[in-house]
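task queued by scheduler; priority normal; single chain, no ligands, no partner chains; default sampling; output format set to structure tokens
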Amino acid sequence: MIRVLTVDKANEKIFINIEDVLYFCSDGNYIDVYTENETYCIRMTLKELELKLSNYFKRVHRSSIVNLTKVKSIKLESNNRSFKLNMTNNQEVVVSRKYQPIIKKDLNRVKHCEHFK
């Protein structure tokens, strides 16, 4: 499991503690890394990254992985069949239907609650 990500920003290398990452969004071989106040870009596939992350990081969409410890709230859509995760930086991340049952279970485990069924 990785503990620190190294990212390039301008002319410097920045070291980001993995627990400071809120979520990742991919576009091909590039991944945007979102922290509380910054966004960085790394060159890697989401699949490669997913294999290196701890169990607190879960895929929620084919192009997104979230840090479950950084989920602030869950927003149910009007159809009550889909939902978004509101992260600690107030950004929303869509959870696809494919990943919803897994995310519900893992959020209950990580957040130590039984209210989200």
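post-processing summary
- Residues 100-111 form the longest helix (12 residues).
- The beta strands are 4-9, 12-17, 21-27, 30-35, 39-43, 57-61, 64-67, 71-76, 83-87, 92-95.
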